[in-house]
């Protein structure tokens, strides 16, 4: 009963949060490049809950669209080109929710303009761009973050705490999104703009890297289904990965799932991890195999469920025959950091994006984050490499590298 009430209260507060806190002196002024659909969820709403963030301006290619977006979301300034926004010295941070194929160019331009950058996932189109951007293009003192928001939430931290990455034998991660969310003309289906399901649902590969806490040694298999009018654009994929500890990971994703398919068994964001048998400390002859399942790793504040199943066997010391077999099951949840054992204030109704923004602001302000979550440049390069591996194995071309080259100053 209390969990139903908790669910209703949290989700009510997600839609209708308590009054926003007043803005502090020295609050960061953000500009948004593009009147994108994801802008309100990923930045505008979380910024309203953050005393140190003001969304100051939005730039859009179309004047009417820019003005309507600004009016709707209470953004005080409108810029009619992306360059105009970058030229404004009062804007210190830029949020980039452009199509993937434009991430590299505008992240680079933003950094060159001296802005901190919150860059939508996937950070860039391929690993060539990732290396160029993350290894050599970040001026000292500036922050660049690939917006893998799911990694900043308490439920994800709690999930990771249940795992023993060295001893993961197999893992499977799914992300199947209902087709009704995206029309045929969506940016996700445009090759030139870095479209494709492996790009958009890059999360499954990120989740797998997190589970194994290492990079895949090889992509053993990669299959895609492509849209009817462009054989380079995948709307569905599945992959099999070999990890350095000998474990096998599987990924699957779709941008064209049926509604029932996506929601049954939490296929829109679920993970299952099976460990190798390990000896139980201090208990001779006892072995444990741990299986961990997570329902909704992507947006845990709404609802999530982490199931930990420990299967024990006790073997005879001499014959090694099984004398006893039993299971211990537990369900775990963390809607706040304290529930995940982290000494950090948070509210149960804060979405991933708010946690991500907190970490971003802390970085910009030079404060240490107590959760320790961050996505380094190296991490983003490895992520882009994994997407490339999947495309290569599937026989599809990598997403095109931007022709933009930084102006030397
Ligand atoms: N973190 C998350 O949960 C999510 C992240 N994303 C990521 O955010 C990005 C944007 O996704 P989404 O908001 O769904 O996309 P939208 O299509 O809603 O927004 C993309 C924006 O890009 C601008 N744009 C600039 N050039 C082009 C062009 N040639 N064609 C089309 N648009 C152009 C448009 O801005 P203008 O207003 O100037 O016309 C448009 O508003 C993607 O990288 C996606 O992966 C998306 C959804 C969820
Ligand atoms: O969280 C997400 O879910 C649906 C996707 O299409 C989107 O781009 C992604 O970020």
How much is the radius of gyration in Å? Answer: 22 Å
Molecular shape? globular
User: What's the total number of strands?
Assistant: 15
Count of distinct structural domains: 2
What portion of residues belong to β-strands?
A: 25-35%
The averaged pLDDT comes out at 96
Give the helix level as a range of percent: 25-40%
Separation, N- and C-terminal Cα atoms? 62 Å
Decide which structural class fits the backbone: alpha/beta
Order of helices and strands: HEHEHEHEHEHEHEHHEEEHEEEEEHH
Question: How would you sum up this structure in a few lines?
Answer:
One of its GO terms (molecular function) is D-xylose 1-dehydrogenase (NADP+) activity. By secondary structure, the protein is an alpha/beta fold.
Describe this structure in words.
By secondary structure, the chain is of the alpha/beta class. It has two domains: 2-148, Rossmann fold (3-Layer(aba) Sandwich); 151-340 and 347-357 and 378-394, 2-Layer Sandwich (Dihydrodipicolinate Reductase, domain 2), CATH 3.30.360.10. Helix content is 29%, strand content 27%. Strands 7, 8, 9, 10, 11, 12, 13, 14 and 15 form a nine-stranded mixed sheet that branches. A hairpin with a 6-residue loop joins strand 14 and strand 15 (322-332). Helix 2 crosses helix 11 (352-364) and helix 6 (127-136) runs antiparallel to helix 12 (377-394). The radius of gyration is 22 Å and the shape is globular. The mean pLDDT is 96. Residues 34-38, 42, 60-62, 65, 97-100, 102, 120-121, 147, 149, 187, 193, 200 line the site of NADPH dihydro-nicotinamide-adenine-dinucleotide phosphate. The site of ligand LJPVP2WV has 3 residues, from loops.
């Amino acid at each position: 009963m209390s969990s139903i009430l908790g669910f209703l209260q949290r989700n009510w507060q997600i839609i209708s949060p308590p009054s926003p806190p007043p803005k502090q002196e020295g609050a960061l002024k953000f500009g948004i490049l593009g009147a994108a659909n994801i802008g309100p969820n990923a930045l505008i709403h979380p910024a309203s809950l953050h005393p140190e963030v003001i969304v100051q301006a939005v730039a859009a290619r179309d004047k009417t669209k820019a003005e309507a977006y600004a009016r709707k979301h209470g953004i005080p300034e409108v810029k009619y080109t992306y360059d105009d926004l970058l030229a404004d010295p009062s804007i210190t941070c830029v949020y980039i929710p452009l199509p993937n194929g434009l991430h590299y160019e505008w992240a680079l331009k933003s950094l060159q303009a001296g802005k901190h950058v919150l860059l939508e996932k996937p950070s860039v189109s391929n690993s060539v761009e990732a290396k160029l951007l993350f290894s050599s293009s970040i001026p000292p003192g500036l922050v660049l973050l690939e917006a893998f928001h799911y990694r900043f939430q308490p439920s994800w931290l709690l999930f990771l705490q249940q795992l023993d990455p060295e001893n993961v034998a197999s893992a499977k991660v799914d992300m199947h999104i209902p087709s009704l969310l995206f029309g045929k003309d969506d940016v996700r289906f445009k090759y030139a703009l870095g479209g494709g399901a492996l790009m958009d649902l890059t999360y499954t590969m990120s989740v797998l890297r997190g589970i194994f806490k290492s990079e895949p040694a090889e992509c053993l298999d990669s299959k895609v289904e492509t849209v009817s009018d462009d054989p380079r654009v995948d709307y569905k994929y599945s992959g099999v990965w070999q990890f350095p500890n000998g474990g096998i990971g599987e990924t699957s994703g779709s941008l064209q799932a049926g509604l029932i398919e996506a929601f049954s068994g939490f296929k829109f964001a679920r993970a299952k991890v099976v460990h190798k048998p390990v000896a139980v400390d201090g208990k001779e002859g006892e072995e444990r195999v741990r299986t961990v399942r997570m329902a909704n790793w992507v947006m845990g504040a709404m609802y999530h469920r982490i199931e930990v199943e420990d299967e024990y066997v006790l073997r005879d010391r001499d014959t090694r025959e099984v004398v006893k077999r039993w299971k211990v099951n537990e369900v775990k949840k963390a809607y706040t950091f304290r529930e995940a054992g982290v000494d950090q204030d948070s509210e149960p109704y804060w979405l991933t994006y708010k946690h991500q923004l907190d970490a971003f602001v802390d970085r910009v302000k030079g404060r240490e984050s107590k959760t320790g979550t961050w996505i380094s440049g190296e991490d983003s390069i490895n992520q882009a490499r994994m997407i490339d591996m999947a495309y290569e194995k599937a026989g599809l071309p990598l997403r095109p590298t931007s022709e933009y080259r930084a102006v030397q100053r």
